[in-house]
Automatic annotation (TrEMBL):
It comes from Neolewinella antarctica. The keyword Cell membrane applies. Pfam families: BatA (PF07584), VWA_2 (PF13519). This is Ca-activated chloride channel family protein. Keywords: Cell membrane, Membrane, Transmembrane, Transmembrane helix. PANTHER family: LEUCINE ZIPPER PROTEIN 4, SPORE GERMINATION PROTEIN. Residues 91-291 form the VWFA domain. The chain crosses the membrane at residues 6-27, 59-78, 310-328. The lineage of its organism: Bacteria, Pseudomonadati, Bacteroidota, Saprospiria, Saprospirales.
Length: 341
């Protein structure tokens, strides 16, 4: 199969008639000016070596090189063979807590920022698998379905925040159940859920939900963000001022991370708990090492055609024509020698 890799360069062919028209206009103006200046016999003595065919020859060489250069830049290609590539991997859902407690600044710059940065690094490490993103508070939102469009997944993570779900509080059990529903039934034993949260849970059903999901073939890894010391949750108001999340009585509310809950969820889900401290990239690599142990499934096969380029068929002759045009010079040396004194 034939194709042009960069067909936009064929627009250079439009230069051929334009340059031809300009040259004819210039040649007619030049010939008329010379005719007014002197007759042909006198002109041969006044301008020895002037060859009326030489400009046409040089211009023709230049004009012929343009289509050749145009096709060379378009890079004509012919298909050499068709290859079938099979992709293997697992389905991974990243569950990201976006409740108000994630605004706490007990880790810098905040729990939310650290979680987003880590999740982005994790997507990079897990390239090759189907990845989805679930955002949750007391309710859950599957913001990115399982996909290999990693740029889209990263954009979803980068924009994640409490403003996306108005109902606040944290229900880790519901998040696990909603994530489980996002997996295809055929991916049992080839799936993983990675929960990123500070561990605050207002329902208490998370461990039971993790155990039930694990019995159906889902492995759950948990990432704990934040410290157990109390911390305020800073928010930006609509008028541009900054305030803190307040309790029902009007006083400033505080939040404390609960790593024990995250450990219990990971244990019940057949996975492992990791605290988000230190190097996010190293932690993402550690998670990848665990995920790679999960038996992979074969995803859809894709066929690709490999192409061989033949731009040099056109580039070589174009360069040769330009070299000849340059070597011809601007006047006929032999004709000029006849008039030398």
């Amino acid at each position: 199969m034939f194709r042009l890799q960069s067909p936009e360069y064929l627009w250079l062919l439009a230069l051929v008639p334009i340059l031809l028209g300009l040259f004819l206009w210039y040649w007619n103006r030049r010939r008329a000016a010379l005719a007014r200046f002197a007759d042909t016999e006198l002109l041969d003595h006044l301008a020895p070596g002037m060859n009326r065919r030489l400009p046409w020859t040089k211009f023709a060489l230049l004009l012929l090189s343009i289509p050749l250069l145009s096709f060379a830049m378009a890079n004509p290609q012919w298909s050499a063979e068709r290859e079938e590539i099979k992709r293997r991997g697992i389905d991974v859902v990243i569950g990201l807590d976006i409740s108000n407690s994630m605004l706490a600044e007990d880790v810098q710059p905040s729990r939310m920022e650290r979680a987003r940065y880590f999740a982005t690094a994790l997507v990079t490490e897990l390239t090759g698998n189907n990845i989805g993103v679930e955002l949750f508070t007391c309710t859950s939102l599957m913001q990115a379905p399982l996909t290999t469009d990693y740029a889209f997944v990263k954009s979803v993570i980068a924009s994640a925040g409490p403003y996306q779900i108005s109902a606040q509080g944290t229900n880790l059990g519901s998040a696990i159940e909603q994530a489980e529903a996002a997996f295809d039934e055929t991916s049992a034993n080839h799936r993983a859920l990675i929960l990123i949260s500070d561990g605050e849970d207002h329902d208490g059903s998370a461990v039971a939900a993790a155990r039930a999901a694990n019995e159906k073939g889902l492995l759950i890894y948990t990432i704990g963000v934040g410290t157990e010391s109390g911390s305020l949750m800073r928010i930006n108001l609509a008028d541009g001022r900054q305030d803190v999340v307040r309790a029902s009585g009007g006083g400033a509310a505080t939040t404390s991370a609960d790593p024990a809950t995250m450990e219990a969820i990971a244990s019940a889900g057949g996975g492992q708990y990791f605290p988000l401290t230190g190097d996010s990239g190293a932690l993402a690599a550690a998670i990848k090492a665990r995920v790679d142990r999960i038996e992979k499934q074969e995803f859809e096969s894709q066929s690709f055609s490999s192409y061989d380029s033949y731009f040099y068929w056109f580039l070589g002759p174009a360069i040769l024509l330009l070299l000849v045009e340059f070597a011809l010079g601007r006047k006929d040396g032999r004709q000029a020698a006849k008039f030398e004194i």
